[in-house]
C-alpha cells in the first residue's frame, strides 16, 4: 500500500527523533482554562470580534432560524447554494432557491458555480471571534465546500461558543480535520492594501442561534 504524504512526513519525523541523542522535551501546557462568561456577555464579545473581522452577523432563535437564513441568502442574491449532507433541512425551509447537497464525488472546481454555502459549526471562541469547523461532522461538510464558494453562511449555536481558545480547543477531536475561520478570507498586497476572497469566501455571514 502506498503511504500517504502525512504518513511519510510522520515517519521521517520519527526516524529523525530516533537518531537524536538529546533528552525528551516536555512542553509546558499551563494555559488558562475553565473560563466562562454569562450568555449575554459571551454573545456580545463574540459578535464584537466577528464584526471587527468584517463578518456579517445576525442572531435568531430556533423558531426564526429558517426566516433569518432565507433573508440572509436573499440579501446576497444567492439562488443556488451548496449544503453538507447532514445540514438540518428545516433551517432552509424559507429558502426558495435551489439547494445542492455536496459529496466527495463532486469535483471541487464545480463548487465555484454555487452562489454560496450554508453550514453548521463545531465550536467557536468568543475571545478571538474564531469559528471552528470539524470536517467529520455531517452538518459542516468537507473543507472545499467552505473555501470555494464566494459566500459562506455559517450557523453557530450560542451554546457552542466558548470564552477562550483553550476552552474551545478542548471540545475538538484532534484527529479530525479542523478549519479555523476568523472573518472572510483576506490578505494584503505589497502596499498593504486589503484584498478579500483570495484564499476563501469573500463574504462570511454568521447566524447565531441563541437557543435550540
TrEMBL record:
According to the lineage, what is the superkingdom?
A: Bacteria
Which Gene3D superfamilies does this chain map to?
Answer: NagB/RpiA/CoA transferase-like
Pfam families named in the record: LUD_dom
**Boundaries of each LUD domain copy?**
111-208
Q: Which SUPFAM superfamilies match?
A: NagB/RpiA/CoA transferase-like
InterPro entries in the cross-refs:
FTHF_cligase-like_sf, LUD_dom, NagB/RpiA_transferase-like
Put simply, this protein is called LUD domain-containing protein
Amino acid at each position: 500500500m502506498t503511504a500517504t504524504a502525512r504518513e511519510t512526513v510522520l515517519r521521517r519525523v520519527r526516524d529523525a527523533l530516533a537518531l537524536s541523542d538529546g533528552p525528551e522535551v516536555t512542553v509546558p501546557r499551563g494555559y488558562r482554562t475553565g473560563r466562562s462568561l454569562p450568555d449575554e456577555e459571551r454573545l456580545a464579545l463574540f459578535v464584537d470580534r466577528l464584526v471587527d473581522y468584517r463578518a456579517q452577523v445576525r442572531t435568531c432563535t430556533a423558531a426564526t432560524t429558517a426566516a433569518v437564513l432565507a433573508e440572509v441568502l436573499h440579501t446576497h442574491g444567492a439562488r443556488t447554494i451548496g449544503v453538507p449532507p447532514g445540514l438540518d433541512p428545516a433551517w432552509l425551509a424559507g429558502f426558495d432557491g435551489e439547494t445542492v447537497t455536496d459529496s466527495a464525488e463532486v469535483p471541487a472546481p464545480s463548487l465555484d458555480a454555487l452562489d454560496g454555502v450554508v453550514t453548521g459549526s463545531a465550536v467557536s471562541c468568543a475571545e478571538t471571534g474564531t469559528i471552528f469547523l470539524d470536517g467529520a461532522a455531517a452538518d459542516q461538510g468537507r473543507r472545499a465546500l467552505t473555501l470555494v464558494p464566494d459566500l459562506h453562511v455559517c450557523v453557530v449555536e450560542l451554546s457552542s461558543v466558548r470564552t477562550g481558545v483553550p476552552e474551545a480547543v478542548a471540545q475538538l477531536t484532534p484527529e479530525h480535520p479542523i478549519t479555523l475561520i476568523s472573518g472572510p478570507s483576506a490578505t494584503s498586497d505589497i502596499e498593504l492594501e486589503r484584498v478579500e476572497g483570495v484564499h476563501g469566501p469573500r463574504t462570511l455571514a454568521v447566524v447565531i442561534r441563541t437557543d435550540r
